[in-house]
Amino acid sequence: MHSFGFRANAVLTFGITILALICAMASISDNFNSPRPSSEIQILNINWFQKQPHGNDEIEDFQVWDVVPICLFSPIDATAAMVSLTMNITADLQSLFTWNTKQVFVFVAAEYETPKNALNQVSLWDAIIPAKEHAKFWVQTANKYRFVDQGSNLRGKDFNLTLHWHVMPKTGKMFANKLVIPGYRLPEEYR
Amino acid sequence: MGWMGDTVDSIKSIQIRQLLAQGVSLGMIVTSALIIWKALMCFTGSESPVVVVLSGSMEPGFKRGDILFLHMSNDPIRTGEIVVFNVDGREIPIVHRVIKVHERQETGDVEVLTKGDNNYGDDRLLYAQGQLWLQRHHIMGRAVGFLPYVGWVTIIMTEKPIIKYILIGALGLLVITSKD
Questions:
Q1: How does the protein's chain sit in the membrane according to the entry (chain A) (predicted)?
Q2: Which one of A28, A70, A71, A119 would you mutate to disrupt binding with B, by most B Cβ within 10 Å of its Cβ?
């Protein structure tokens, strides 16, 4: 009853139980935080709006891609067009941070509907916010990821820009939510 | 040395009934662990309710050795969710974030593109030859929670199987030599 083995076993079990309890409490404490994030996204300019050589509609910034031929970089299916846009993104996500937050992953996605697809969500830009000090930011950027449609449906298309955030804790449950900003529109013709 | 002598003595003095009783209680422990695992599978709706992160492609969010709790519901898959998926031909599931979703009008079928947070490009290079999108049946679950560092035990046991054998041997010895 008092051997080294028993004592070591008791200490380890107790230690692990307490650790698990603390992790659970840390995660539950996140529920008491009521965040009030805010954001604004402005599209400064549609740089490019072209039909791809293969056909898909795509919006993208050619300054990034023009070193690599598009067909080799990533095979897109046979009908696509391309768009490139520059955005101004302002956001204040400081209220999302609690003591149990490791980082917040934030990204902007374009949402729109086409005759073939009930919902299309295409992520345009993302960033990782490691700490509360960086959570209030202003960034002006071209879209990081290719804004491609499955087809050529983007002319004159209305779309929403949604700012999504994903709170990744130090331990426990992850939370995600979004802010939908409607009312953007693509030009009627390719240019 | 007294401990070794005691061990040898206790091995010599094993009775059949006691051995059987210990065998049954060991069996009970193993089966209750299995019951808990299967119940978790049912509860979370996912084939493997807990996975260990093996690569650094989701850093700094998920590091190698963290464990993720998965949940699969019939809710549609949307961008930003961290999903665990299997690619045909690869046995190890991959944990990445969804960056593009295209959902069909009539059927509700989705086509999904994923990317690791720490990777430069999307996952098309990881998909099977000629595959451009993931479908729902590839996805095993969504990550809903996580615990840091706990997965290192699994990684060590997988990469250095000798440690696994040593552990099982030691446990077996403990079971045989314990008086109750």
A1: Single-pass type II membrane protein
A2: A119
